[in-house]
Task: inverse folding
C-alpha cells in the first residue's frame, strides 16, 4: 500500500452553478434538504452555491441573438466552485446545459448533467412520447429532442409555446403564485392526451409545478436526487 | 486622476457562511430574493453560499461542552468565500455570532453582523423590554443581552426555555410544519405581556415564525435587508 495523505473529510461537496434564476436555485437546495434523511445539521449535504444572476441571459443569446455569450461567465463560475472545494458540479437551469461541453472542459470534476440524467430516467421507464415543457431556447437547440431520439423517444411541443415562454419570464420576475401555477396546469392538461408523460425541462417551471394534475417528470427533481446520491457516496470510493 | 484598472463588475457580492442549519440558509436566500425588486434574473443579487452543515455544532460546543470547537471551520469557510469573490460576509445563524470576532480577524471584508444590526434596529425603535426567542447557547453567551444592555434595553427570557430548545432541534430534524409553528406561536403569546416586542434571535425559529400573532422583530429578516442594501450599493462608492 502506498502512503496516502490524511483525509480531511470523507463527505463529498457539490458545487451549484446557480442564479439562473435564483428562485430555481433555492428550489433545488430545498429539494436536496427534503430528500436527505437527517437527525441534526451534520447529516445534511455540503453545498457550495454561486447564485450568480449576472450570468448573461441564455435566452437572449440563444434565441433573441441580442445578448453576450454567457460561456465565459459560466466557465469562470465552474472553475471558481472547483477551487472552493466542489467535488462535482450541478446546474439548476436546463437551458444553460446548451453550454455543458464548455463547462466540462473548464474543470476536472464531473458535471451531474440534468439533461442526460433526466433522459436516462425517462428512457428506463419505457415511455416513448414525451411532452416537453421548456424554454424556446431548449427547443431551438434540440437539447432534449436529440438525446431522446437516440433512445427512440419522440418529443412533443405544447400547442402554444409562447404561453410557456411567458410563464418562464413571469417566474423570473418573481411571479410564482397560484395564477401562474394554474396557467401551467392548463397547458399541461392540453398536452396530456398526446404524450405518455410530461417533462418539466425548465427549472422556472419546476417552481410553479404545484398545479399540474397529470403525470410528469421534473428535471429539477431528477437533479436533486443525483446531488443527494453523489454527496452521500464516500469520497474515497469509486 | 490616477489610472484605475477596468472594473469587471460594479455589483457587490455577498458571501453566506451557511448550513447552520441548511433550512435557515435557504430561508435567508428566499428573503433576499423577495426583497429585491426585479424584472429579470440580472436584477437579482449575486450570492456565494457555502452551505456547510459539517461545521461542528455551536450548541454542543457552547452549552453541552461535548463537541469540537467550530472556529477553525468557520474561519476556513470565511476565507474561502472571500477568495471566491465575496465583498462582505453574512451568517444566517445567531449562535455562530459567538465566533464573530475570530471570523472578522480571518478576512479583510466586512461581516454584516446580524446581532449588531438587530440590536441597532430595536434600539432605534425606542423599545426597552425585548423578549428573546433564541437558543440556550445565545442566552449563556449573553450575545444579545450584553449588546442590548449597552442601549439600556432589558432582555427577557421565555418561562420555559427548554421548550424553545426542543423546537430548534425539531427544525434541525426537518420538522417545520404547522404543529411546530403553532408551538412557537404559543410560547410567543406567553411572553408578549412582559415585553415591548419579541425578537426571533435564532434562524431555525425564523423558519417557523408563521404562527406568531404578536409584534416581533426577526433577526433573519434584518440580515436579509442588510444583504440587499449592501449588494445594491455600487462596489466603487464608499
Result:
Amino acid at each position: 500500500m502506498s502512503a496516502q495523505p490524511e483525509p480531511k473529510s470523507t463527505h463529498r461537496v457539490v458545487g451549484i452553478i446557480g442564479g439562473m434564476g435564483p428562485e430555481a436555485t433555492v428550489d433545488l437546495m430545498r429539494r436536496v434538504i427534503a430528500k436527505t434523511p437527517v437527525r441534526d445539521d451534520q447529516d445534511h449535504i455540503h453545498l457550495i452555491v454561486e447564485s450568480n444572476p449576472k450570468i448573461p441571459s441564455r435566452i437572449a443569446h440563444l434565441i433573441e441573438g441580442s445578448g453576450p455569450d454567457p460561456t465565459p461567465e459560466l466557465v469562470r463560475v465552474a472553475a471558481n466552485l472547483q477551487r472552493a472545494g466542489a467535488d462535482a458540479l450541478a446546474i439548476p437551469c436546463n437551458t444553460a446545459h446548451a453550454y455543458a461541453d464548455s463547462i466540462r472542459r473548464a474543470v476536472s470534476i464531473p458535471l451531474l448533467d440534468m439533461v442526460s440524467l433526466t433522459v436516462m430516467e425517462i428512457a428506463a421507464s419505457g415511455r416513448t412520447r414525451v411532452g416537453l415543457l421548456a424554454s424556446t431556447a431548449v427547443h431551438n437547440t434540440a437539447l432534449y429532442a436529440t438525446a431522446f431520439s437516440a433512445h427512440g423517444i419522440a418529443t412533443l411541443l405544447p400547442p402554444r409555446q409562447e404561453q410557456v415562454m411567458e410563464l418562464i419570464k413571469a417566474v423570473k420576475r418573481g411571479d410564482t403564485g397560484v395564477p401562474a401555477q394554474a396557467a401551467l396546469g392548463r397547458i399541461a392538461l392540453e398536452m396530456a392526451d398526446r404524450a405518455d408523460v410530461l417533462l418539466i425541462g425548465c427549472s422556472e417551471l419546476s417552481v410553479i409545478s404545484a398545479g399540474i394534475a397529470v403525470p410528469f417528470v421534473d428535471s429539477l427533481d431528477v437533479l436533486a436526487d443525483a446531488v443527494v446520491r453523489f454527496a452521500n457516496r464516500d469520497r474515497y470510493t469509486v
Q: What stands out?
A: The radius of gyration of chain B is 18 Å. The longest helix of chain B spans residues 178-192.
